[in-house]
């Protein structure tokens, strides 16, 4: 059984704000656009909330699920989202995104965040060509080396692509808090535009070195697993939201947890994944409100950890 | 932080379940033919003779090839990049079953204990009607895993038949089925599906029964 994030909204506690948000979304009224942050290497601004695709967009050739994913993508762009992240590792997710983009006529605001994931020293270019074919686009905005796999070779290849004008940004990723020491070395020695790491109210290791280093080196930060692949939402399900919820700008546990992530000043964009249109709107809604300050952020993390 | 099984999960429970719905829709009415063939295999399990067991092994071999090609290569591969690597393993199993079917020294249990026979029969029945019954009970009979079309019931029917075949060659033919039991159980457990325990339970009981029978002869 899947958790219904709306079900964990404590209606009585935040009836006013929550009611406004739900009615706005349901009536189709345009919500405030999500806040943006600059990519340090270019100054280009990205909305703080992006769209992940791990598991959720791997639907194969299922026409019903493909259309549902396309609706999620449509709602994402409608709500002011830009960055969609995927990987060759995510099954059919690339093709699903391509399907959604084609249905929308390839929105000009789309920001593609792709990955290269192969231990083959020479397989990177072929994998990127396949990715472009799946997406149906002539080039990508960002290509990241997935989980540091063969990163030296791939970073060199990606930098060449960037120099040739076939790629705008280069990045590298890890997930679930692994190989941070190696990631730090890459961040400290290689000219990269983006780094992608796991960060949420429980997994906060990146606060110590990775996020400060990203600020110091002028590297944009994408955050994966802001809900711990849903585990965090299941963990807080049925638990009381804090009485000071209103201070955080959130109206539900999902918004509370996401607000914690994107309010870190080093974070450029978080990429929660979902199969539901209402969740996309809910996620984007977090970035459309004032974000918690540092004092409140610490209070939020402590509250989640005490549960 | 360490790796967990869910780190290797690529698709959702819903996508996985709907895979069988699409599979069934695409193949209809092959299910009818497959169930008839499976019924023939069941006869060999319940009342084994040399000819019946050989024919049943040959029929199952064809089912394994069909599952390898139509399910793993064409269907499952759309959501799981590892599926094409499983397809050849299922073909190897088909070759093993053909090899066993053509073995002149093929022996089977003419006189097995009531418990062993009952266990093989129950496993055979479950493979043929149990899986569709589970789907029907859950209100989704259209996404039933059908023997001969989907791997799990095909593997269970194979293990049920091999329970009445003796010798080392039959034991060798159990390696791939047991391997698949582990893979599918871990996948379904990670997806949160309660049916994950079905195959491991039958597998353990059938292996224990085989081991005890071998120890006595």
Task: Describe what this molecule looks like in 3D.
The complex is a heterodimer of chains A (307) and B (217). Chain A is α/β, with parallel strands linked by helices. Chain A has helices at 15-27, 63-78, 93-103, 124-135, 151-163, 180-189, 210-217, 231-236, 245-248, 253-262, 277-286, 294-306, and strands spanning 36-38, 45-47, 83-85, 111-116, 140-145, 167-173, 194-198, 220-224, 269-270. In chain A, the strands form two sheets. A seven-stranded parallel beta sheet of chain A has the order 3-4-5-6-7-8-9. A two-stranded antiparallel sheet of chain A has the order 1-2. In chain A, helix 2 packs across helix 3, helix 2 runs parallel beside helix 11 and helix 6 (180-189) runs parallel beside helix 7. Chain A is globular and about 55 Å long. The model of chain A is unreliable at 1-30 (pLDDT under 50). With 217 residues, chain B is mostly helical. Chain B is built from nine helices and two strands. In chain B, helix 2 (30-46) runs antiparallel to helix 3 and helix 6 (151-162) runs parallel beside helix 9 (198-216). Chain B is globular and about 45 Å long.
Q: Could you provide a short overview of the structure?
A:
With 307 residues, chain A is α/β, with parallel strands linked by helices.
Give the termini separation of chain A. Answer: 22 Å
Strand element count of chain B: 2
Q: Class by helix and strand content of chain A? A: alpha/beta
**Strand order of the biggest β-sheet of chain A:** 3-4-5-6-7-8-9
């Amino acid at each position: 059984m899947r958790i219904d994030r709306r079900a964990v909204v404590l209606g009585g506690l935040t009836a006013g704000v929550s009611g406004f948000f739900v009615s706005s979304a349901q009536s189709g009224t345009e919500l405030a656009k999500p806040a943006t942050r600059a990519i340090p290497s270019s100054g280009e601004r990205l909305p703080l909330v992006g769209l992940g695709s791990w598991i959720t967009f791997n639907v194969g050739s299922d026409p019903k699920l493909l259309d549902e994913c396309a609706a999620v993508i449509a709602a994402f762009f409608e709500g002011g989202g830009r960055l969609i992240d995927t990987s060759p590792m995510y099954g059919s997710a690339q093709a699903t995104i391509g399907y959604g983009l084609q249905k929308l006529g390839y929105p000009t605001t789309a920001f593609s965040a792709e990955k290269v994931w192969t231990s083959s020293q020479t397989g990177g270019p072929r994998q990127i060509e396949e990715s472009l074919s799946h997406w149906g686009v002539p080039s990508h905005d960002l290509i990241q080396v997935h989980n540091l796999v063969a990163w030296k070779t791939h970073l060199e290849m990606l930098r060449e692509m960037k120099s040739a004008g076939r790629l705008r940004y280069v990045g590298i990723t890890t997930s679930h808090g692994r190989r941070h020491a190696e990631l730090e070395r890459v961040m400290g020695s290689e000219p990269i535009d983006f780094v992608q790491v796991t960060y949420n109210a429980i997994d906060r290791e990146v606060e110590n070195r990775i996020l400060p280093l990203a600020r110091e080196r002028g590297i944009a930060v994408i955050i994966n697993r802001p809900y711990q692949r849903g585990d965090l939402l299941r963990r807080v399900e049925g638990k009381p939201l804090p009485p000071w919820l209103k201070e955080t700008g959130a109206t539900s546990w999902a918004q509370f947890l996401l607000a914690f992530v994107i309010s870190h000043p080093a974070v450029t964009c978080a990429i929660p994944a979902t199969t539901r249109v209402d969740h996309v709107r809910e996620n984007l809604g977090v970035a459309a409100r004032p974000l918690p300050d540092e004092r409140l952020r610490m209070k939020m993390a402590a509250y989640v950890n005490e549960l | 932080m360490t790796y967990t099984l869910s780190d290797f999960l690529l698709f959702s429970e819903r996508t996985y379940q709907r895979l069988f719905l699409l599979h069934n829709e695409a193949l209809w009415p092959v299910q009818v033919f497959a169930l008839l063939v499976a019924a023939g295999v069941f006869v060999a399990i319940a009342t084994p003779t040399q000819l019946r067991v050989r024919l049943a092994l040959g029929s199952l071999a064809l089912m394994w090839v069909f599952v390898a090609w139509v399910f793993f290569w064409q269907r499952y591969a759309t959501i799981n990049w590892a599926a094409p690597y499983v397809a050849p393993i299922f073909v190897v199993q088909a070759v093993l079953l053909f090899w066993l079917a053509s073995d002149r020294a093929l022996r089977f249990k003419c006189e097995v204990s009531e418990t062993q026979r009952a266990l093989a029969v129950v496993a055979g029945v479950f493979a043929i009607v149990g899986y569709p019954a589970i789907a029907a009970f859950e209100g989704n009979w259209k996404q039933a895993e059908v023997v001969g079309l989907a791997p799990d019931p095909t593997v269970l029917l194979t293990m049920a038949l091999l329970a009445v075949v003796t010798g080392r060659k039959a034991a060798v033919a159990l390696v791939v089925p047991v391997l698949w039991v582990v893979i599918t159980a871990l996948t379904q457990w990670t997806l949160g599906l309660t049916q994950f325990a079905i195959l491991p339970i039958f597998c353990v009981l059938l292996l224990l029964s085989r081991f005890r029978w071998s120890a006595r002869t």
